[in-house]
Amino acid sequence: MLSVVIPTLNALRSLPATVAALAPGRDLIAEILVVDGGSTDGTRAVAEGLGARVLAAARGRGTQLAAGAGVATGDWLLFLHADTALGPGWAAEATAFMASDPAGSRAAAFRFALDDAAPAARRLERLVALRCRWFGLAYGDQGLLIGRRLYQALDGFHTMPLMEDMDLIRRLGRRRLVLLTTPAVTSAERYRGCGYLPRSLRNLGCLALYFLGVPPARLVRLYGGA
What we know:
Layout: E1 2-8, H1 15-20, E2 29-36, H2 43-49, E3 53-56, H3 61-71, E4 76-79, E5 84-86, H4 90-100, E6 107-114, H5 119-135, E7 144-147, H6 148-153, H7 164-172, E8 177-186, H8 189-194, H9 196-211, H10 216-224
Helix pairs in contact: 9-10
């Protein structure tokens, strides 16, 4: 069975669609864990109304994800951002992936997609697909499907203010990451707000600095400015 872990912070507008998109996997999902980092917009009440188990944790996506994983009961874990809705075929593809790897020796990420019809969104999606294919670097907004034993062997998500997804993916390694074809459709609000090119360049700059060894605590100021 599968435990879905969703970190939230004022996710009132996006969370209902994210949870609704999980419906095709209702026979597969043991629980939906919403780990809230201090929302003030009613997110927790909405999550409870949607049937999720709600936990409180210190603010920070890595901290929240780790807290959810720590109480999850499923043999498999699906980490999902609160503004990301999986495509209709996700449950069938996830089931096939898990059946193909009963030992849980690999993890999987979904195909990055944005909820924007703009040509810039399609260009970014193609660039992300190339990044994933060439380097095996999947971001958290693509979801992460991973067996509990492998997650624990990797020491799970670390408490850090930024790059918690890259930190885990680097420990996982390219050879143990499978790229699924079902889209994980993420809100493009941040890209529309500051522009696709500035936002993409800022993300790329943060990633490059992270790989050069700049501490995430310093990078969060640059990333937050976006």
